[in-house]
Amino acid sequence: MSLQFVKASTSDALTLNGISKRAFDSDVQVGAPSAGGPPGYMSVPFHTKMARSNHLYKLTDDGLIVGGAILFSDKDKLNIGRIFVSPEHFRKGYGIYMMQEIEAMFSDVKEFTLDMPIWNVRTNAFYSKLGYTEARRDNEFIYYSKKHE
Question: With a threshold of 0.85, does the pTM exceed it?
Fold first, then answer.
């Protein structure tokens, strides 16, 4: 495996959009009420805009795009808007690799934040395993935080 986690360009938006759509639609298998995802998850213009504004990242394995992330940096905080991996590549360690890369790339950040739907048991367990703790929750989402010393 030759993994690289780097900023995506607008030319990657179409590929990442397809991966995002398939990844989030697959959540229906782990408790999602229906196929769907976060705002813009299946919109090429959205992914193009995220690439243009330097929020879109891609994970490649030997040059093949296998996943992506949308990250929002705000002073000493980084919000992990979403990460996604192509369903045919689930359970291969790509998600863990991306999260480790994100934390290493933004080593000056004091806190990483993210949120996800309460029903998503698979992803909630994933982030807990990586040291993210629940900061709060509402009727729909759990909000996670990880302090960076």
Answer: yes
